Amino acid sequence: MRGLSPMAQLSEWLSPTKNCLLFSTLQESTFGAVLDMVTDRVSTAALLVLLTHFYKSHYGLFLGLLALDISSHWLQMYSTFLSSKASHKDMGDSKSTLLRLYYQHRFFMGYCAIGAEVAYILLYMLAAEGNIGSPYEVTCRSIGNGTVYGILLAIALPGCAIKQLVNLVQMKTAADVCVNYDYARHNSKAQ
Amino acid sequence: MEDSTIEDSPKQRNWPIYLYIPNIIGYARIIANVAAFGVAFTNKKLFAILYFASFVCDELDGRFARMFNQKSTFGAVLDMVTDRVSTAALLVLLTHFYKSHYGLFLGLLALDISSHWLQMFSTHLSSKASHKDMGDSKSTLLRLYYQHRYFMGYCAIGAEIAYILLYMLAADGNIGSPYEVARHAVAERTVYGIVLVIALPGCAIKQLVNLVQMKTAADVCVRYDTHRYSSKSQ
């Protein structure tokens, strides 16, 4: 990630499909990458807002997921900027083992990200169809009944859960980057 | 609010940045926000008190950072992120209390996220390219806006206050669209109404500025690419 152009950095986060289109048509642009990122953030946010309405008793869960999505992506973005400014030896390798594993397996990454989106959409569909109760009850019931939604949920939910875990870890490592950035600047001044 | 441009050297070697006083105030602000939104549907007075407490923390952390020489990059980012999340949560609340107009508040949420995200990115790009490459892409409105920090503050605070007042009015039992509720409060000349009259113009200007900033930030992204390719071909 370090030392790469913004385009290359950004494409780390782009969906696999968009990435394919982007590079195959040779119409990559920084604006396009930012547009993609912003649309991701806003559409995920809107979906979670929807879920606070459909599962009002558990609005805190979805509000929390919204907070986590905004915070972790914001921190990641900022720490990427800082990393691209500082030299490699200053920043150190602040990524955790979990993150290293995560980033090495792009299809796994895709599964987790898509899993989260699919899980949210399915929860919406189930609630909109009249299933009442907490999101946990609705999920258990649809998996127990072996419906199409239930089967898809069973596949998507682990990915969703891992994505949230990764978001949490990324917040911590990104915060560390911010802290190390200040220490590195101070050390280089003191020399 | 912290000045994000300069960090102080971590002179106090034994004082980890995570435990800087302004950052601890930042954590307290987050806790106050979490507690506030936890009770938003059940206890509007407590929500107002907690949200006000987080507002106080937001003001204090900048002052303490200057006072104790404890400015940090982490502190500035913490401040930014907390701003974004608490504004988002407040707008989510308003989609619930004004369900018939949830699109308005969802739109404001989308605008808040998009404009700040684009701004942050374009600032990063500008800091990489030289000044003459980027050109002065700011519009006249933005130049005016940024030259008057108190005016900026009024607009930003106006938006937050307008949202909180709309929440309080709805939680008090006022029903109808946000426009009706606002007009009603203003006409009745209640305290809420008077404060709304003061806050709403600032709120409106803030949204306008957000829109303009999105456009100019997008222009920065485009110009960044154009310039890289033209400098390569030279």
From TrEMBL, chain A:
Taxonomic lineage: Eukaryota, Viridiplantae, Streptophyta, Embryophyta, Bryophyta
Main location: membrane
Primary enzyme class: transferase
Name of this protein: CDP-diacylglycerol--inositol 3-phosphatidyltransferase
Compartments, record wording: Membrane
Keyword rRNA-binding: no
Gene Ontology terms for molecular function: CDP-diacylglycerol-inositol 3-phosphatidyltransferase activity
Transmembrane parts of this sequence: 108-127, 147-166
UniProtKB/TrEMBL annotation, chain B:
Pfam families for this protein: CDP-OH_P_transf
PANTHER family the record matches: CDP-DIACYLGLYCEROL--INOSITOL 3-PHOSPHATIDYLTRANSFERASE, PHOSPHATIDYLINOSITOL SYNTHASE
GO terms for biological process, alphabetical: phosphatidylinositol biosynthetic process
GO cellular component, one term: Golgi apparatus
InterPro entries, per database record: CDP-OH_P_trans (IPR000462), CDP-OH_PTrfase_TM_dom (IPR043130), CDP_ALCOHOL_P_TRANSF_CS (IPR048254), CDP_diag_ino_3_P_euk (IPR014387)
Encoding gene (name): LOC112279341
Membrane topology designation: Multi-pass membrane protein
Species the sequence originates in: Physcomitrium patens (Spreading-leaved earth moss)
Regions that span the bilayer: 20-41, 151-170, 190-209
EC number(s) given by UniProt: 2.7.8.11
Substrates-to-products reaction catalysed: a CDP-1,2-diacyl-sn-glycerol + myo-inositol = a 1,2-diacyl-sn-glycero-3-phospho-(1D-myo-inositol) + CMP + H(+)
Cofactor field: Mn(2+); Mg(2+)
Record key words, sorted: Lipid biosynthesis, Lipid metabolism, Magnesium, Manganese, Membrane, Metal-binding, Phospholipid biosynthesis, Phospholipid metabolism, Transferase, Transmembrane, Transmembrane helix
Family: Belongs to the CDP-alcohol phosphatidyltransferase class-I family.
Subcellular location: Membrane
Name of the featured protein: CDP-diacylglycerol--inositol 3-phosphatidyltransferase
Enzyme class: transferase
Molecular function GO labels: CDP-diacylglycerol-inositol 3-phosphatidyltransferase activity; metal ion binding
Broad class of the protein's primary localization: membrane
